[in-house]
Give the backbone structure.
Amino acid sequence: METGVTTWNMNLLDIGAMYPFPGSEMIMAIIGIASWIIWHIIQMRAENKKLAKEEINFSDKAKLLSAMKVSNAETLNEALKSHEEGIKG
């Protein structure tokens, strides 16, 4: 890609913009900020769904204790997953 400039020994204001889409910076910034905010909203909703599911799993003490007894898992999440798979299977 060539700029068409043969020498820089001139008034640079006469050349114009040296990058594509001059004048669209504000629109691009608004689109970028809006998509960043929308991503955060989507991410928060997904995490809230996951946390609600985990809260339900951890709130039932009997289910939690039986999962820990059945499984030799190192963490409670592994114990609950193996317990849920045993119920489904």
Remarks:
- The first helix runs from residue 25 to 59.
